Amino acid sequence: MISLQNLLDNEKCDEALRQARWPEGVRCPHCAAATVTRPGRDTTQPARQKYRCEGCGRYFDDLTGTVFAGHHQPLSVWILCLYFMGRNRSNAPIARERGLDPSDTQRMTEPLRQGAVARPPEPVLSGEVECDEVYVVAGHQGHPEAVRRAGRRGRRRRLKGARGRGTLATEKPPIFGMIQRGGAVVIRRVENVQQATIRPLIQRFIEPGSRVHTDEYSIYNPLTDWGFDHHTVCHSRGEYARDEDGDGFHEIHVNTQEGCGSLLRSWLRPHRGLSQEKRPLYLGFFQFVHNVRRRGKSLLSPLLTLLVA
Q1: Rounded to the nearest 5°, which phi and psi values hold at 69?
Q2: What is the DSSP-derived secondary structure letter of residue 206?
Q3: Of 23, 193, 198, 271, whose CB has the highest number of CB atoms within 10 Å?
Q4: How far are the Cα atoms of 151, 250, 275 from residue 280, in angstroms, in the given order?
């Protein structure tokens, strides 16, 4: 675990990154050779070690090939920014905390989220899995040309989305969630909630033969034909959990995924005005945080390890 006091020290931040990236010794990021020399330190960042590969003759440092390379901000600023992202702070508070320009903060947090979303292996869900969808209003903030193409006036302040199920086109995009009981979650923004849209996701992330729990929505009717053991709970009849085998335990429900959907709404709330284009990045980051099962400062080490792996 990285000490919070060390986040303000560039030398200790470089040492933490070095240990995360080279746990078995330094290797050339260009040719993977293990024979390297240390010709000195970086002239602008004295805490940063420089290396020369004996195999290909190229120079590199601990940041080469990572999202932290090629930027003017010290590594301590990047790692502290990553810590605040793990605490679900939005860009504006991070900028105020570190005395940064909001545009600089945006240019830092976006590649960090992209790196965290792109690198984790995709989970495969099995056993008992719950599927459900949640709808969150998202327009085209920062993209006025998209608003004009949609043929509508700018959304008035505090205007709520229409009742009922929405689509990407109506600016109330569905977020489809699949969660394994006691395991990982997979969430994806989709254009609509039709069988043709959700079937590829279900077959991609849920192991065939798994027991899948859903509500009574008709899009889930073909799950048995798709190779799953399908069980439903009927919310329209006031049913939220059912004891199907008479053992006294109400095992048929989607309460786990609905609870995850509530957590997701709370996670998105500080990031006001997210556009449809940016929403998948925030969903992917939430998925990583949920699946790694860590919070606060203990989340920083797996995030840093992921980004420099």
Answers
A1: -80, 145
A2: B
A3: 198
A4: 24, 34, 10
* pLDDT over 60 (residue 1): no
For residue 31, what are the CA distances in angstroms to 19, 52, 61, 105?
A: 20, 12, 14, 33
Angle CA 70–106–117, to nearest 5: 80
In what helix (H) or strand (E) does residue 13 lie, and over which residues does it extend? helix 10-21
* Nearest C-alpha neighbor of 268 from the set 152, 187, 214: 187
Distance CA 220, CA 232 (A): 9
CA distance 124 to 193: 21
Count the Cβ atoms, other than its own, within 10 Å of residue 194. 12
Amino acid at position 205, single letter: F
CA–chain centroid gap for 149, Å, is 29
pTM of the model: 0.84
pLDDT band at 159 (very low <50, low <70, confident <90, very high): very low
Contact between residue 282 and residue 188 where contact means Cβ atoms under 8 Å apart:
no
Angle at 134 between CA 128 and CA 135, to 5 degrees: 165
